[in-house]
Design a protein that fits this description.
- There is one protein chain.
- The protein has 9 helices and 9 strands.
- With about 270 residues, the protein is α/β, with parallel strands linked by helices.
- The chain has a single domain, classed as Alpha-Beta Barrel (TIM Barrel), CATH 3.20.20.
- α1 links the parallel β1 and β2.
- α5 packs parallel to α7.
- Bound molecules: zinc ion (ZN) (2 copies).
- The site of one zinc ion has 4 residues, from loops.
- The site of one zinc ion has 5 residues, from loops.
Length: about 270
C-alpha cells in the first residue's frame, strides 16, 4: 500500500524538557520525509503548570514558533500548533485557562502519572501493585475522556510501555476491558479521536499504544476519528511508524485519519 498523505499529529520540540530539535529544523526534516502535515504538541503537565514557571514559558515559545513555521511552510507542509496536556483533569481550571490562552489547532490529552505520583517512566514496577496502578490509570483516563476539552486521547495504555517494555511484565489488558470499553464509548459519543501512538514500535514494547485490538474495538463501539502520532522527541523519529500504522487503521476498518486545524477535525481519506 502506498500512502501519499502522511500526517504526524504528535511531536515534541526543544520546547519540551525531553525534546531536542528546533521547530524549523523539524519542519525541514518533515518535508524531506514527505509528510503532508505535522503537529507540534509540546508537553504541558497541567498538575505542574502553576508551580513550574518554565512550563508556561515553553508552551508560549512552542506556540509562537509553530505559528511562524506555519507561514514559512505554507504550500509545502501543513503545520498544526498543538499541545499535549498531561493530567488535565487534576486541575481542570488551569487546563481550560491554557486552552483559552492560545489558538491551538490540536489539543492532545494524556495521563503520565497518578495523582501526586511521578511519571510512569520513573516508577519501579518490580515493587508496584501493577493491578492497582492499571486500575487507577484507567479510571483517570476515563475522567479525561469525560472532560471533553481535548481533541485526541493519546497513548492509551501508556504504563504498559514501561511495565512490559522495561520490566518485561505481562499485563492482560482484557482484565480492564470494562474500563477501556467505557473510555472508547465516551470518545465515540463525543466525537473525539483516539490516537494510535507509534513510539512503542521503535522501542522495547514493539507495538503501538494502544494495540490493534483496542483500535478495532473503538471502531466497533462507534469511533470514527483516529489520529496517528510518532511522539517523536528528536527529528529523526518524525513520521516514524506512521505508514505501518495507517495499515493497522485500515485493517481495523478506518478509512480516514484525522488532521486538526483550529480545533476542527479534517478527515483525510487513506488511499
Ligand atoms: Zn505523552
Ligand atoms: Zn508526547
Amino acid at each position: 500500500m502506498g500512502f501519499n498523505k502522511l500526517l504526524d499529529m504528535h511531536t515534541h520540540t526543544d520546547n519540551s524538557p525531553d525534546g531536542s530539535a528546533a521547530i524549523m529544523y523539524m519542519c525541514e526534516v518533515a518535508q524531506q520525509k514527505g509528510l503532508r502535515a505535522i503537529a507540534f504538541t509540546d508537553h504541558c503537565e497541567v498538575d505542574d503548570y502553576k508551580q513550574n514557571k518554565n512550563v508556561s514559558k515553553r508552551i508560549k515559545q512552542s506556540y509562537f514558533e509553530s505559528v511562524k513555521a506555519r507561514s514559512v511552510y505554507t504550500g509545502r507542509l501543513i503545520v498544526s500548533s498543538g499541545v499535549e496536556l498531561g493530567q488535565p483533569t487534576y486541575d481542570i481550571k488551569t487546563a481550560e485557562e491554557i486552552i483559552a490562552k492560545y489558538k491551538f489547532d490540536i489539543v492532545l490529552a494524556a495521563i503520565h502519572n497518578l495523582r501526586g505520583g511521578e511519571d510512569f517512566y520513573f516508577m519501579d514496577f518490580s515493587k508496584q501493585d501493577i493491578d492497582k496502578v492499571m486500575t487507577q490509570y484507567f479510571k483517570e483516563v476515563l475522567g479525561v475522556a469525560k472532560w471533553d476539552g481535548f481533541d485526541s486521547l493519546v497513548h492509551l495504555t501508556y504504563p504498559i510501555r514501561y511495565i512490559k517494555g522495561k520490566y518485561d511484565i505481562d499485563v492482560d489488558l482484557k482484565k480492564y476491558s470494562d474500563y477501556t470499553d467505557e473510555i472508547l464509548k465516551v470518545l465515540a459519543r463525543n466525537g473525539k479521536a483516539l490516537e494510535i501512538n507509534t513510539s512503542g514500535l521503535r522501542g522495547a514494547l514493539g507495538d503501538t499504544m494502544p494495540t490493534k485490538d483496542i483500535v478495532k474495538r473503538f471502531k466497533e463501539l462507534g469511533g470514527e476519528r483516529i489520529t496517528i502520532g510518532s511522539d517523536a522527541h528528536k527529528a529523526r523519529d518524525i513520521g516514524s511508524g506512521v505508514e505501518q500504522t495507517m495499515e493497522i487503521a485500515v485493517d481495523c476498518g478506518f478509512n480516514f485519519i484525522t488532521l486538526y486545524q483550529n480545533r476542527v477535525p479534517i478527515m483525510i481519506p487513506i488511499e
